[in-house]
Amino acid sequence: PTAPTALAPTAPSALAPTALAPTAPTALASPEASPFFTGGAGAGTFPPNAYNPCGRGDNCGFTSMSYASHLQNPTAPLRDADELYRQLLAQLGIPDDGSLSRQLVFPQQSYDALRSRPGYEPLFTEDGNRLSEYTLPNAARTLGVNGREVKAAFEDWQIAFDRHSSIEDAVAARVEVLEHRGGRAPDPAAVRRWIEKQRRDLPGTYIVGTHASAHYMTLTIDQNGRITGFDPQNHKPYLDEESIQLRMKNEKFDLMFKVDAAGLSPGAP
């Protein structure tokens, strides 16, 4: 389906990033490919900001959803990370007593074999667990931050935009790759139509995450294919994809959640 109209990449001035430093902060440690994001610290880890009023270092998923929610509803009162955490607890029927970690569970196909661990006990019952309800995509939808997972978006961006100075260059590069793969010769006109579609569909704002960094932040692709990033947890902007990849400790993203544009109804394609 056709992607929604891209969100404006710039936050209102009062909430905009305050510095343009590409140097990445120290990433949170996490076992490779674990669904649990461990590490981080609580209140006072970072200077407070509108999305992270307590300056926590363990709530990157909630700060990213706070920023995305504000982009979707710029005239509504801002829901900060603490408020979203409390709202999600209420939706899940879990007491607000600090027993549930603020670090969201990373999506994976099955959680059946996982055992309870400190910070996630409220999600385990005698009948199994509710870990899937505490992933970023499901938490976002529960909280009304509408969007969808787009697993191949970054790879599609590399084909359609990346370093290509023109659409003709992108088409020629893709045709060459397909020719090297063998089989039937590619149709340049069909390749161009596909690239044109990606250039229409890809621009927008995404929440991205990687296992290696145990972190979530936001990424924006503008109409010209330029990528920039913003981490609402510490209010830090990133000027290009290389600095984002450095922060996320990976050249690709394990999760990309494209945020629906403002004004779209829940579940809009």
Write a brief structural summary.
The protein is of the alpha+beta class and 269 residues long. The protein has helices at 60-72, 81-92, 136-142, 153-160, 167-180, 188-201, 241-248, and strands at residues 124-125, 128-129, 147-149, 204-210, 215-221, 227-231, 236-238, 255-259.
The span between the termini is: 6 Å
Find the count of extended strands (DSSP E, 2+ residues). 8
The helix/strand class is: alpha+beta
What is the radius of gyration computed over CA atoms, rounded to a whole number of angstroms? Answer: 19 Å
* Stretches with pLDDT under 50, minimum 5 residues: 1-14, 16-32, 263-269
What is the makeup of the main sheet?
Answer: 6 strands, antiparallel
Layout of helices and strands:
Elements: H1 60-72, H2 81-92, E1 124-125, E2 128-129, H3 136-142, E3 147-149, H4 153-160, H5 167-180, H6 188-201, E4 204-210, E5 215-221, E6 227-231, E7 236-238, H7 241-248, E8 255-259
Antiparallel strand pairs: 1-2, 3-8, 4-5, 4-8, 5-6, 6-7
Helix pairs in contact: 1-2, 4-6, 5-6
